[in-house]
Predict the structure of von Willebrand factor A domain containing 2.
Amino acid sequence: MPSFPLLAAIFIFLLSGVRPSHPLQEVHVSRETIGKISAASKMIRCSAAVDVLFLIDGSYSVGKGSFERSKHFAVTVCDALDIGPERVRVGALQFGSVPHLEFPLDSFSSPREVKANMKSMVFKGGRTETGLALKYLLRKGFPGGRNASVPQILIVVTDGRSQGHVAPPAKQLKERGVTVFAVGVRFPRWEELHALASEPREQHVLMAEQVEDATNGLLSTLSKSDICTVASPDCQVQPHPCERKTLETVRELVGSALCWRGSRGTDAVLVALCPFSSWKRVVLTHPATCYRTTCPGRTEITNSRGNHTQLLSACDSQPCQNGGTCVPEGLDRYHCLCPPAFGGEANCAPKLSPECRIDVLFLLASSADTTLEGFLRAKAFVKQFVQASLGEDSRARVGVARYSSELMVAVPVGEYQDVPDLLRSLDGISFGGGATLTGSALWQAAERGFGSAARTGQDRPRRVVVLLTESPSQDDVAGPARRARARELLLLGVGTEAVRAELEEITGSPERVLVYAGPRDLFRQTRELQGKLCSRPPPGCQARSLDLVFALDASASVGPENFAQMQSFVRSCALRFDVNPDVTQVGLVVYGGQVRVAFGLDTHATRAAVLRAVSQAPYLGGVGSAGTALLHIHDRVMTVQRGARPGVPKAVVVLTGGLGAEDAAVPVRKLRNNGVSVLVVGVGPVLREALRRLAGPRDSLLHVATYADLRHHQDALIQWICGEAKRPVNLCKPSPCMHEGTCILQNGSYRCECQDGWQGPHCGKRSLRGDAPEARGSRRDPSQQLPRSEHPGR
């Protein structure tokens, strides 16, 4: 009878999901023919008036590695094009969540310029919105092209995993005379590539990973027209039998095992035989015909298998280590694109990494809430980090501690210099169980986590605590985290989405937090962690007084997922300010079908409270109006009675998708005329003209491609806010006087001239019958209104 742990292991394995397909293209030809195909790819040349546009998939499903191979394929094709203003024009457009024009067809007139700009394209990520990119071309045409006066060739390089329909827009493009090639990367979905490609489809569907074969196939198809020519009359296009293979993972019934299940209608537990399955890999083949140009010549292929030769490149041996990306350069050459931690090393082999002198203490949650599985996963991540980062000359020293209700330093920092010994010691760390007292663990780690490894003075390396947890803490973390940071410890957090906000509070910045979606995603974080270990984010303007209000578009045009990304961005920005009533006050307004003040300027006196309140801000839906929201801020948020402080700079940051911003020009002008700075952050394909009218005299406008890209613009936003915080302040703008009182500047101070029936410093108190007339006005010393940190001599 199998034990319960065995059954649990089987259950987890069955739910792990089907692995992605592994495509492989093979051509059934002789070794000599393979050599002729390779030689021909360098002899075909396209020289005519033609527009060639590369539409390159830069989504997360493709990944940065395959994106680099796509660029390499495009550059290789450009080598065969007679690029010039009157001959072949080349342009490039990258797409993910939105299409992004890299360079139009009329930008560059030489092969050198085109290839240099193709190589400099930066991976953007996002969803795979292929259909959206095709519709962009239907609306705009080929950017910089010569319309339909010359042949138009569209080369779509994608994995074929679009999140929308591609067949209708692809059909419309082809009906307009555009020749479409579909070139697969990574693990392509063949049926979508066929839907994209022109007829005959077998001649217009290729595989970018096999760059020379794909280049030959594309040029062979074009050579049937007058566009491409070959250098030798002995070269000819011939059909060859080929196969596209897919390695599928299927479930297969193995047998039965005892399991326990309840019986309906009774309290009894029955033992029964339950079927269980295993995964089996099956190779599915799809016969096809590949049209290739062959020329006289011979190239020896060492991996030939007689008359059934697989098209291979130098990258098939996977020479690049530690997550490096192999880019083939012909059949026997390649180069490696290495992660930052391994740049400059041959084949991305382990190097001195991280590059600064650091002592690293990994703090692993080992509580009952974390579970044994989560603890083992965290321990495996540490082992991977050690293997990837520590070499013979490494200046990084590693220690490991586990915690639940108590902290146990299992491997003191610096105790093991030999990597195999360190790995063996990690295997011996056992699971603890108990409560999740992260705050207590941080306190103890700051006190004794580095032990004798803690050197002093200039000889002391940077000390880093890397916290790995999947469970919220059962004790306070803010105080211990502040204490640890005060002792010059860099805190980094690695965890799931459930603990993101807590990790941001512990580390002091979202930039020091790595969030993973599942086990596989966790092990992709090694390179990110290496990059953060020595990073030093630029400081914000923490010592300056400021009243800051964020206005978030929570309308239906934004959607709940994008609204959550805006919330994360606001939390990230708030962490850069010293939030308290004497320095920075933060307020938040959300707007959709209505306008709602999530919290006012004087609601929360600490940064932790602001972070929690931002996370709890409601998504509203409905039709939003930025103008209504800004008027609400002017009348009911940036006022003395609602916590605004006279003599303190004031700023409003509006985050919007652009819809509903048409009516905001007058409210924005009203705020600015009253001394409130306004920055508009437009996200996505916004109404640019509407937002541009809101920019104001200092061009206070940021445009962000996608909501996921907001985090990349945080420094620009902080720089703008800090610049506004330094500008001169008019004590009467906005007016501190309530109930239509008049603010009058006088000798460096101000006074409020109150309307009949009101009195007090800010006209906030009803006057009693018989009060003296002069009581209606009150002169104020501005120092009484400024925060304590702004007083002279403080």
